[in-house]
Every structure is written in structure tokens, then in C-alpha cells.
Amino acid sequence: MSTIEAVRGDITTQRVDAIVNAANSGLLGGGGVDGAIHRAAGPRLLEECRALRAGSLRDGLPVGDAVATGAGRLPCDFVIHTVGPNRHAGQTDPADLARCFTSSLAVAREVGAASVAFPAISAGVYGWAGADVARIATEAVRADLAERGGVDLVRFVLFSEELLELFEARLAG
């Protein structure tokens, strides 16, 4: 049986097998969670992302897809990058957001990660309401784990008390 939990904290300090990066399609760093992960991981992460862009992801990572790299100086083994839908750019389909979580779990299984930490993908600068992200994320993760298993711990690591309360309410209900 898998455990799903929510905590308030800094995703870059999580001692899990993999953390999920709310990346942009270019994979070369940015603001928010993406920038924090790149800064904490150091230059090796950027090198691996550049290699992906020079190879199989020349056009960038599509919304909802996921890919893994090493973690550089982070206290985990892998960073799983996924691109959330940007509500401000008209990307409003909840299925795209749900796919960020399920494709990240699929990649976690591929690399053998038994514990995964997620941020609130697309909340914040991508314009999705925290309540919607909490609902979509928890439903997608629960359904995926019930069907496929393979991941022992999913931890939602949230940057605000408000998001934590929204996720906790979803997990309790």
C-alpha cells in the first residue's frame, strides 16, 4: 500500500528517491520551483537538460510529459521534469495537469524510484487555482497508484500554508 502525504517545505531538501520539477518546456531553468531546483542541484543538472535538448527533446518537453535526469547536488537520486499547463496561455484542460502527475509516476517507476516528492504543479505563476491543483493532483495520484502501484511514498511538498491546507483536505476526504 502506498502512502500519500502533504507537507509544507522546500522540495530541494527532500530526502526521497526523486523530486519532480515543475519545469518549462525548454528544461533550462526558470523561476519558481524550477529555478530553485536548478540552483540547488548545481551545473550538472543544466548540463543533463542541455543534453536532452540536443538529443531526443530538440523541440522541448511537451505539456504533461515527463523525463528524468540525475539530481546533481540535491539529496535525491533523480529529478523528474514535467511541464504543467499554463492557464494564462489558454492551457485549461484538467487532463493535461493530471497527466503531469501520472507521467511523472511512470518515469519514477522506470528509474526505480520508490519515493517521489511533487510540488503543486501549475499553481502560482501558471495561474491554476490551488484548490483545482490539489483536487486534480490527489485524484490523479490516487488513481495511478491504485492501478499501477510501484511507488511506496508520494509526498506533496507545498510552499504555502494555504496550499498545504488544500492538499491535506483532499487527502483526508
Describe this protein's structure:
The protein is α/β, with parallel strands linked by helices and 173 residues long. Helix content is 41%, strand content 19%. The protein has one domain (3-172): Leucine Aminopeptidase, subunit E, domain 1, CATH 3.40.220. The chain is built from five helices and six strands. It has a six-stranded mixed beta sheet with strand order 1-6-5-2-4-3, sandwiched between helices. Strand 5 (115-118), helix 4 (130-148) and strand 6 form a beta-alpha-beta unit. It is globular.
Main features:
single chain, 173 residues, alpha/beta, Leucine Aminopeptidase, subunit E, domain 1, six-stranded mixed β-sheet, 5 helices, 6 strands
